[in-house]
Hints:
The complex is a heterodimer.
Chain A: E1 7-19, E2 25-37, E3 41-45, H1 52-59, E4 67-72, E5 75-76, H2 82-91, E6 92-95, H3 109-119, H4 125-138, H5 155-167, E7 173-177, H6 185-202, E8 205-209, H7 213-219, E9 222-227, E10 230-236, H8 237-242, H9 247-255, H10 261-266, H11 297-301, E11 306-310, E12 313-316
Parallel strand pairs in A: 3-8, 3-9, 6-7, 7-8
Antiparallel strand pairs in A: 1-2, 1-4, 4-5, 9-10, 10-12, 11-12
Helix pairs in contact in A: 3-4, 3-5, 4-5, 5-6
Chain B: E1 3-16, E2 19-32, E3 36-40, H1 47-54, E4 63-72, E5 75-76, H2 82-91, E6 93-96, H3 100-103, H4 110-121, H5 126-139, H6 145-148, H7 158-170, E7 176-180, H8 188-205, E8 208-212, H9 216-222, E9 225-230, E10 233-239, H10 240-245, H11 250-257, H12 298-302, E11 308-311, E12 314-316
Helix pairs in contact in B: 4-5, 4-7, 5-7
The complex binds adenosine-5'-triphosphate (ATP), adenosine-5'-diphosphate, iron/sulfur cluster (2 copies) and magnesium ion (2 copies).
Amino acid sequence: xxxxxxxxxxxxxxxxxxxxxxxxxxxxxxxxxxxxxxxxxxxxxxxxxxxxxxxxxxxxxxxxxxxxxxxxxxxxxxxxxxxxxxxxxxxxxxxxxxxxxxxxxxxxxxxxxxxxxxxxxxxxxxxxxxxxxxxxxxxxxxxxxxxxxxxxxxxxxxxxxxxxxxxxxxxxxxxxxxxxxxxxxxxxxxxxxxxxxxxxxxxxxxxxxxxxxxxxxxxxxxxxxxxxxxxxxxxxxxxxxxxxxxxxxxxxxxxxxxxxxxxxxxxxxxxxxxxxxxxxxxxxxxxxxxxxxxxxxxxxxxxxxxxxxxxxxxxxxxxx
Amino acid sequence: xxxxxxxxxxxxxxxxxxxxxxxxxxxxxxxxxxxxxxxxxxxxxxxxxxxxxxxxxxxxxxxxxxxxxxxxxxxxxxxxxxxxxxxxxxxxxxxxxxxxxxxxxxxxxxxxxxxxxxxxxxxxxxxxxxxxxxxxxxxxxxxxxxxxxxxxxxxxxxxxxxxxxxxxxxxxxxxxxxxxxxxxxxxxxxxxxxxxxxxxxxxxxxxxxxxxxxxxxxxxxxxxxxxxxxxxxxxxxxxxxxxxxxxxxxxxxxxxxxxxxxxxxxxxxxxxxxxxxxxxxxxxxxxxxxxxxxxxxxxxxxxxxxxxxxxxxxxxxxxxxxxxxxxxxxxxxxxxxxx
Lengths: 320, 339
Ligand SMILES: Nc1ncnc2c1ncn2[C@@H]1O[C@H](COP(=O)(O)OP(=O)(O)OP(=O)(O)O)[C@@H](O)[C@H]1O
Ligand SMILES: Nc1ncnc2c1ncn2[C@@H]1O[C@H](COP(=O)(O)OP(=O)(O)O)[C@@H](O)[C@H]1O
Ligand code: SF4
Ligand code: SF4
Ligand SMILES: [Mg+2]
Ligand SMILES: [Mg+2]
């Protein structure tokens, strides 16, 4: 457990809104505060469109925030420039969901991995080549693969290439955005094992975005649950699974089918009615109120505050 | 229980420039009335081709059936004319696909798509078919069905589209519903709704279901019987509990161990099946899993292991089941804790 220690990343009241025309505002991330400790894996879960990717992209400065701030090693990420910005761009990397779309089909694997090394001028000539071979080895490929093109590889191998590319610039922090959801079960295990191994070896910090909660539980130290742009619960992996407090987290956990027939037969599911509402002009008060079986009048009037109700266990709900 | 579907020795190939891809290499199984059978296995192992052959939806050419028979509700599928087959597809067996957007018609109102086959195959008057479409939308849990019936697919959310697909598939009360990764594209809370819906409908209508999925949680939730496929063959089959609690094939072990269980923590590695499945242009003569199997013996490379029966309906294609083979303790199953 790495809950103690120093935060590598602090997110304070972060908002990211998109103007979607005709005066409508889509609140993809709406007032989120959290931190990520050095060497920790913070899992981020929630249904599609709830704002996970947007949050990851804003943290590593692929988006400007609408308001609020992100601190990386104590410095405001969106105010960096010059040398400090280059440093940040090297230290914070992202691995993408789709291993097919995220690799340039016209570049060799070696050049894909070498691109970041060139941009940051880390190694040249023979050193550069050696480093590329080394990285291929790290992710379980070999140097013969350097001259091939992405389409010659399977999904799992392409995801390894994406990981090698992220590692090439010696990052400290990696946003893993659904890194395994496009892969087969048996290959998922290979990629996850690799990510875990690298974290140990290189002391990496991860923001791990996924909707497969059993995998998130396995890899994460702490987990944040998002609903319609808001983090509704944040706790250690164990606490979140053993004592989920927010009604949405409870429903989410009960909805996941587990690979155990007896558990499935015994399980009482909390079925949620309806679909996730639109993040365009989201409801006042608690965003979950329409689907919540405990909703009371205050829930539609006032947005519940995100507060620590037990040690290291945060929740935004009027029940607590 | 009464047989609905009997597939025997099915072999399906595709002719390509590079040669013949042997996608399905001798598959036999049955489905009883009202039963749910899951097919699992990694991508490319032949699941979709198997069920598409049953529906006669394989593009021919390049595809062709090399061998085998499919008897559905007493009819030999291969002997039906295209017109008769169209009728079977419209009213006796239907399919739900992974991606509802590619199989719904974007230019046609959802209600009209549900009514279409009722009008065509059951000669229902249009007005009555529309009423039935609304009823079906309600049945699959779409709120405001009276309004929604006149909307187009793009006006539906992902979960609603999937439910609309199920409404279309079930409108004619088919005897067999084939669902190919029906929930893969959905969020877990919506997935739970769809699984519940399928179970409910099955109880009400006694529909048989074949479900194809990568998700072993979905299998545990829905299936009564499981077929495990590898490189175009069924390598293990049995009741749900036999497959999860008493698995006997090394590939099934690998599949079951690569998903994290609730006890497993970060300090332990997940099991993974290293390597890749064989080339289906030239599949090996012996066991197709041998190159990735840590228990492989000499005979495994030389001869295909025919099915060994290890329990009631539990059959395994693996030489480890041979009485002369060395004893191997399953690394997964009931009473086995992962380390
Ligand atoms: N139209 C086609 N032409 C040529 N080969 C095909 C065609 N359709 C399928 N195949 C091949 O047949 C094999 C089995 O394919 P199939 O789609 O059944 O796999 P699957 O188990 O459903 O995999 P997935 O989980 O990825 O959908 C694969 O090797 C595939 O490439
Ligand atoms: N560039 C953009 N312009 C407008 N809307 C966007 C943009 N990027 C994301 N969104 C919207 O923001 C919401 C959150 O998106 P995203 O963070 O990608 O969700 P997730 O990763 O959780 O699936 C979605 O409704 C999405 O459509
Ligand atoms: S604040 Fe109210 S509506 Fe929201 S989750 Fe809590 S009880 Fe439910
Ligand atoms: S037949 Fe041989 S190679 Fe195939 S799974 Fe059994 S032990 Fe392994
Ligand atoms: Mg996303
Ligand atoms: Mg398929």
